Amino acid sequence: MAKSTFLTLCLHPLVVISQLLQGNDSFVKVAGPDVHIAIPTIGVGSQTLETPLPYAFPDQNVANTDALFPMPLCNGITLEEATIDQLQDYMGRGVLTSTQIALCYMERIWQTDEYINSVLEVNPDFLQIAASLDAERETGKVRGPLHGIPFMVKDNIATKDRMQTTAGSVALLGSIVPRDAMIVSKLRAAGALLLGKATLSEWADMRSNNYSEGYSARGGQARSPYNLTLNPGGSSSGSAAGVAANVFMFALGTETDGSIINPAERNAIVGIKPTVGLTSRAGVIPESAHQDSPGPFGKTVRDAVYVLDAIYGPDGRDNYTSAQIGKTPREGYMQFLTDRSALANATFGIPWASFWALADTEQQNKLLELVELIRSAGATIVNNTELPTYKTIVSPDGWNWDYGTTRGFPNESEYTVVKVDFYNNIRDYLSELENTEIKNVEDLVTYNYANDGSEGGHPWPLGIPAFYSGQDGFLASLESKGIMDEAYFQALAFCQRTTREDGIDAALAMGPNGSKLDALLVPPDIGQTYQIAAQAGYPMITLPAGVHSMTGMPFGLALMQSAWGEPELVKWGSAIEDLQLSSGTPYKRTLPKWYGYLEKNIPVLNL
Ligand SMILES: *[C@@H]1O[C@H](CO)[C@@H](O)[C@H](O)[C@H]1NC(C)=O
Ligand SMILES: *[C@@H]1O[C@H](CO)[C@@H](O)[C@H](O)[C@H]1NC(C)=O
Ligand SMILES: *[C@@H]1O[C@H](CO)[C@@H](O)[C@H](O)[C@H]1NC(C)=O
Ligand SMILES: *[C@@H]1O[C@H](CO)[C@@H](O)[C@H](O)[C@H]1NC(C)=O
Ligand SMILES: *[C@@H]1O[C@H](CO)[C@@H](O)[C@H](O)[C@H]1NC(C)=O
Ligand SMILES: *[C@@H]1O[C@H](CO)[C@@H](O)[C@H](O)[C@H]1NC(C)=O
Ligand SMILES: *[C@@H]1O[C@H](CO)[C@@H](O)[C@H](O)[C@H]1NC(C)=O
Ligand SMILES: *[C@@H]1O[C@H](CO)[C@@H](O)[C@H](O)[C@H]1NC(C)=O
Q1: Taking the mean position of all CA atoms in its chain, how far away is CA 263?
Q2: With a cut of 50, which residues of the chain have pLDDT below it?
Q3: Active site includes 273?
Q4: Which intervals hold domain Amidase (predicted)?
Q5: Ligand nearest to the CA of 594
Q6: pTM
């Protein structure tokens, strides 16, 4: 906390923001640790706006263009599409303070949240934290590349502050967490500015099997700025939509089976799902200890890797993280960032029948054009590098985490493991909470039934349209009683073997003349790609790769690797990104056009 008298604190943040909103860039002046706020006399006349456009209302004359929600300048500086390096440069040169940047992002929240709803809760202490980070910088201490950079975390990641941690459920309102999640604590130590909690699919999609992606009782419906009527990707929906719409600089999400890669690729941003055990799950509301993995969202690979570097590492509270010892690079992952010239040495595999054949023709064609560009940059592309097990383990009909059961073998199904793990892991998580009566899956089920109107315990129409199938996911977990029987262990062993040594690793070994491939290139809009990586516990990165003509929704190009293959993912991901940005290809990140910005359909459509 700065030693200053700190007048800002007496002022409601929104008063400050309203001045910025009116384009008064001279309103906030920051000098040293003291934040001097000039409080203008707001006369009756100045309370009304003759021209609220373009910032206060979306102008229907520019509907279906990226000008619909123009991001206001921040003290004359363009923040839209700014990178972490650019923000550091502004702060380092004294052009902007972290306080100013945070206020400008607050203004962006104000402008967009009624529409895309990426924010669930704002950190009431963000101004004080920003001011103390500014004060620290004034004294010459810069903690690192994330010093003063505003971010949000998915609401299933514990923060030991004045914010709630609820997985979007009203059942956990008022509960008190024992401590920050390790990954949050690491980001605070790195100087990043926690601006708030992002919306999500409630309970990270564990509770229902037919639901509106991005919806939670506490947070409402998160929407993608690319097409607000459609599935925004999930379950880290708000984290991804907010980064995509420049509502915050970066975000953390969590993945059990797709919840980082899917929302990242559907919002034209970079998402990294680390190897299970690289990033601690301590303080993260769990689904399955075998598959859960928190990771970063950023607009560029470099931004995402700054965050990965800050959050990975062993943690005594999550014993899976001990597996990384000796397997991670000494100096972090930034050293692997490279450019397109590296592609001259790359050899990538295309698991065509395993995954690509499942994509629609438009995506196949566009992604193949991108692959052709990668080849023309010097890379060797090897087609038909299939997972030997694909005919058994890859669902032909879309994402299905109970595909083993669909085939007639529950003892070979991912869901057999996840529903048992959830029962046990959530009980352990809840046991550390204070100020709540919710202790286990039984309590959650009872609560949801008792609050049908908000939580949709029963299937629609007794419950709510967003949870069409009610809480069938919780009921399946409840029925398992968390018993780790023979079927559980068979399923665990089967899922791991068929996706690891007999799956992804075998495909990676199909390089020319028995050499190893540098990565598998896959279309992550095909959910079975991240589904197989999820069962393996293996890492993935997705890069923005184009927009679908029928829906306006983005899709990605993803790279798959083996356990602890993050150096390769960072290297080749950054090389391909540099190629995209430096070549005139249309198959890269583009700004959202906010299709359907006035529609409020629930459930969102799964197109
Ligand atoms: C901007 O804020 C300053 C300081 O409060 C004030 O003097 C000035 O009149 C404001 N300008 C506008 C255009 O509102
Ligand atoms: C899932 O929910 C939608 C309504 O949101 C419904 O139309 C559809 O039939 C449901 N699917 C199944 C398999 O029940
Ligand atoms: C973590 O600890 C649990 C319980 O003590 C144990 O069953 C499990 O095998 C350990 N996992 C790892 C990866 O060390
Ligand atoms: C290609 O790999 C070789 C051997 O590892 C290395 O010496 C060379 O610098 C690499 N070239 C590029 C462009 O990265
Ligand atoms: C890979 O092979 C399949 C046939 O197995 C073909 O349809 C596809 O176009 C090929 N893809 C590339 C990138 O060569
Ligand atoms: C699953 O059970 C079937 C018998 O129903 C058996 O044939 C199969 O080998 C089992 N799978 C595994 C992975 O043990
Ligand atoms: C594979 O081996 C053949 C025959 O030894 C050789 O001509 C070819 O260049 C090798 N290819 C690669 C990619 O090393
Ligand atoms: C947005 O999605 C809707 C489906 O809800 C679709 O009808 C519409 O065409 C999409 N908009 C654009 C511009 O692609």
Answers
A1: 6
A2: 1-13, 15, 29-40
A3: no
A4: 104-397
A5: 8
A6: 0.93
